[in-house]
Specification:
The chain has 7 helices and 2 strands; from the N terminus they run ααββααααα. With 180 residues, it is mainly alpha-helical. It has 2 domains: 1-34; 70-178.
Length: 180
């Protein structure tokens, strides 16, 4: 009887530790999302000048001719990218890999904004997305086909099948490794 109690308490304390880590990580993510409006309006602290000098760096806005405008444009791409990345790592659904397409699109837009020689910020990025879409869209379709084959063969609900197909790594590094 004492061995059973030890096993139960050992399992329970291990379970509580996992819950504590999840709670802390969830709290950090919720706090970052809650203060995101402050991140969104951070560009207002940038001066409306062509050259912006700080202790850490100097930024010369050649294309926009105003550091304020450049940071406003950059911030308009970074904040949605940030939310998409959070959504990608916290989503449990089988289709969450589809979020890689807009994530890639925003990354290309940020690269284009930082490249001062471009005339149009959102031009030709679709051509760069084609290889990413060529990998992600068929893989999502294959997962969908697997789901519907299992629905026809087995008497399970869609939620049970999603739970069966969902891989949940324990660490952040495991989550990152899962996608690459």
């Amino acid at each position: 009887m004492t061995k059973q109690k030890q096993q139960l308490t050992g399992t329970k304390s291990k379970f509580q530790l996992t819950d504590k880590k999840r709670f802390i990580l969830g709290s950090i993510v919720a706090l970052i999302i809650a203060i995101s409006p402050y991140f969104f309006y951070a560009y207002e602290s940038v001066p409306d000048q062509k050259i912006w000098s700080t202790y850490f760096f100097t930024y010369n806005s050649r294309f926009y001719e105003s550091a304020y405008t450049a940071m406003w444009t950059l911030n308009g791409k970074i904040i949605p990218l940030f939310f998409l990345i959070i959504w990608f790592f916290t989503c449990r659904h089988w289709w969450h890999h589809a979020l890689l397409i807009p994530i890639t699109m925003y990354i290309f837009q940020i690269i284009n904004i930082l490249n001062d020689d471009l005339k149009y910020v959102d031009s030709f990025q679709f051509l760069y997305l084609i290889p990413v879409m060529a990998i992600i869209i068929p893989s999502i379709y294959l997962v969908r086909a697997r789901l519907f084959n299992r629905i026809n063969d087995v008497d399970k609900s869609i939620q049970e099948l999603e739970d069966e197909l969902t891989f949940r790594p324990k660490t952040i590094w495991g989550k990152i490794n899962q996608y690459f």
